[in-house]
UniProtKB/TrEMBL annotation:
Listed InterPro entries: RpiB (IPR004785), RpiB_LacA_LacB (IPR003500), RpiB_LacA_LacB_sf (IPR036569)
Family label: Belongs to the LacAB/RpiB family.
Key word Cell membrane present: no
Binding site for D-ribulose 5-phosphate: D8, H9, G67, T68, G69, I70, G71, N100, R110, R133, R137
UniProt cross-references to SUPFAM superfamilies, sorted A to Z: Ribose/Galactose isomerase RpiB/AlsB
PANTHER family reported for this sequence: DNA DAMAGE-REPAIR_TOLERATION PROTEIN DRT102, RIBOSE-5-PHOSPHATE ISOMERASE B
Taxonomy, superkingdom: Bacteria
NCBIfam families: PRK05571.1, rpiB, rpiB_lacA_lacB
E.C. numbers: 5.3.1.6
Record's protein name: Ribose 5-phosphate isomerase B
GO biological processes: D-allose catabolic process; pentose-phosphate shunt, non-oxidative branch
GO molecular-function terms, A-Z: ribose-5-phosphate isomerase activity
Length: 149
């Protein structure tokens, strides 16, 4: 399994912990798109880089970290085909894969503790999309125009 990592300065330290944690798993290959320090940067770039690596099929999943997980997930979700889920617990992480076929896990380093964050990562990576009734809903996310109004 190939995983892209990305973070802004607020998420840098947690990204490094996730990188260290996942690098112990032989079946996982990591690509780190930065940032590489706590120096202030703008999160959209990292959200977009990780999103692009998924759309280009360079990796299977992405993990993004910023202070809250909000900005970087909003940025990633602007890319067609990306379903970035900002998760604060393991249930959200599992259901984001099972029901929403999330291809990016977003984390808020200022919101979740390190131990919980690693549990969330484990849960996200071990859960599978259930398809079935969820497939048509996921397909509906990609509408070009909203026809409700
Ligand atoms: C950076 O200070 C912070 O705004 C960013 O990491 C993130 O929380 C934005 O959503």
């Amino acid at each position: 399994m190939k995983i892209a990592l990305g973070a802004d300065h607020g998420g840098y330290e947690l990204k490094e912990k996730i990188k260290q944690y996942l690098s112990m798993r032989k079946e996982i290959e990591l690509i780190d798109f930065g940032t590489n320090s706590t120096e202030s940067v703008d999160y959209p770039k990292y959200g977009h880089l990780v999103a692009k690596s998924i759309i280009d099929k360079e990796v299977d999943y992405g993990i993004l970290v910023c202070g809250t997980g909000i900005g970087i997930s909003i940025a990633a979700n602007k890319i067609k085909g990306i379903r970035a889920a900002n998760c604060t617990n393991t249930t959200m992480a599992r259901l984001s894969r099972q029901h929403n076929d999330a291809n990016i896990l977003a984390l808020g380093a200022r919101i979740v503790g390190d131990v919980l964050a690693l549990d969330i990562v484990d849960e996200f990576l071990s859960a599978s999309f259930e398809g079935g009734r969820h497939q048509k809903r996921v397909d509906q996310i990609e509408i070009e125009e909203c026809n409700l109004f």
